[in-house]
Specification:
With 247 residues, this protein is mainly alpha-helical. It folds into 2 domains: 119 residues, no CATH class; 55 residues, no CATH class. The protein has 7 helices and 4 strands, in the order ββαββαααααα. A hairpin with a 2-residue loop joins strand 3 and strand 4. Helix 1 runs antiparallel to helix 2, helix 1 packs across helix 3 and helix 6 packs across helix 7. It is rod-shaped, with a radius of gyration of 31 Å. The two termini are 34 Å apart. This is DUF4383 domain-containing protein. Pfam families: DUF4383. Keywords: Membrane, Transmembrane, Transmembrane helix.
Length: 247
């Protein structure tokens, strides 16, 4: 689309609309399998993290850990107590439940839990070796929380936070202006009369820009300026021809 300044007597911008190029077939947005792969990766990531947390929590229960101990006991190389074991199992169940639901749910849950893991790492780092260390964290737990938090955030954002989402992505939304590119062939002229109208339209727009247009051309171009699609502008142009024949 090229925007040109209006001539005197035409109170609005004129636009010379050229045919749009279609997207090449190699464009990732045209991959029919990409949307399904996004969900598969997110679901697999959620299940994997959930299983690790579930095993960690269940081993803590099996060890009979003191619920509110600030010292903790070693489970899989990390410090834990009864409260941390309970939280681990609850988070694991939430991730598993989300993985069984829709793509948008599992993505949102992973983003939220990932952020909470990072927040937990910061808070518990500040209370290490104090009486406020209710989850019996050690430095290894802080590192684990950061790693898991970043992993969940990355997987939750995968295929969702992007400017070029595939058409079948569960997170793709129609944006204003996209409707003009959905079916590019619908705007193309399909009859000899429409082809002739296209030629006359372009000639009139050029004539207006060059200040050599006739009164009829200026009226038609001004009327077309109210329309946004190529087909609608052609329809307005041809309506003048229809009115002239009926008159």
């Amino acid at each position: 689309m090229v925007t040109v300044p209006p001539s005197p007597g035409v109170p609005m911008a004129l636009r010379l609309h050229l045919p749009h190029r279609t997207k090449p077939s190699s464009d990732p947005a045209g991959d029919p399998h990409l949307g399904a792969r996004v969900f598969a990766v997110q679901r697999a990531g959620a299940v994997l993290v959930a299983l690790v947390l579930l095993v960690f929590g269940l081993l803590g229960f099996a060890g009979g850990l003191d619920y509110f101990s600030t010292e903790g006991e070693r489970i899989l190389g990390l410090s834990s107590n009864g409260l941390l074991s309970t939280i681990s199992v609850v988070v694991a169940l939430v991730l598993l439940a989300a993985a069984a639901r829709s793509p948008r749910i599992v993505s949102t849950v992973m983003l939220v839990i990932g952020a909470l893991f990072l927040l937990s790492a910061l808070v518990n780092l500040a209370v290490l070796r104090t009486s406020f260390n209710l989850l019996a964290f050690e430095f290894e737990n802080v590192v684990f929380s950061v790693v898991v938090g970043l992993l969940l955030l990355t997987l939750g954002a995968y295929g969702r936070i992007s400017g070029h989402l595939p058409a079948d992505s569960p997170y793709a939304r129609v944006r204003p202006g996209d409707d003009e590119d959905v079916d590019l062939t619908s705007d193309l002229p399909s009859t000899p009369a429409e082809v002739e109208a296209e030629r006359a339209m372009r000639a009139a727009e050029v004539a207006v820009v060059q200040h050599v247009a006739t009164n009829d051309q200026r009226r038609r171009v001004a009327a077309m300026a109210h329309e946004h699609s190529r087909a609608d502008r052609r329809r307005v142009w041809m309506s003048f021809d229809d009115a002239r024949r009926l008159g």
